[in-house]
Specification:
The protein is an all-alpha fold and 137 residues long. Helices cover 61% and strands 0% of the residues.
Length: 137
């Protein structure tokens, strides 16, 4: 390879990394802005209000709930179980984010959990409630 070819390859690689980081930053910023005016709730409070009667233990819920917040890069106390995954995406769908957003990470973890536990896949996964029911069992 000549010097110009190496420079072009480096430019493409670094440009791709920079674009991914910019989109990830915009995703987190947009997601945080969309839930920023909410009152922060403790995981216990969210569980008692939303999932205590769904066959999910409080301990499992809290572990899964905190993991969701971690994967989405957001304080889990600002999330609600009825939040829709497509609204939490944080970037417009037309950008073609598949594979590198927090929501993609969350869905991948849920799929891994389903395989590891041999649980049947739900018909649809549209909200955080759906994800929590998978991760907490």
């Amino acid at each position: 390879m000549n010097r110009n070819s190496i420079l072009v390859v480096l430019l493409v690689v670094f440009g791709g990394v920079a674009m991914r980081n910019i989109l990830r930053y915009l995703e987190i910023k947009t997601r945080n802005a969309s839930v920023g005016d909410r009152r922060t709730l403790a995981a216990d409070e969210i569980y008692d209000q939303s999932l205590s009667e769904q066959g999910v233990s409080k301990e499992s819920f809290i572990k899964a709930w905190n993991r969701v917040g971690e994967l989405l890069d957001i304080d889990s106390g600002l999330l609600r179980v009825d939040d829709k995954l497509d609204e939490l995406l944080g970037v417009p769908k037309w950008i073609g984010t598949s594979g590198f957003t927090g929501v993609d990470d969350l869905i991948a973890e849920a799929e891994t959990h389903l395989k590891a536990t041999s649980m049947p896949a739900p018909k649809s996964v549209a909200t955080l409630r759906d994800i929590i029911v998978i991760l907490a069992r």
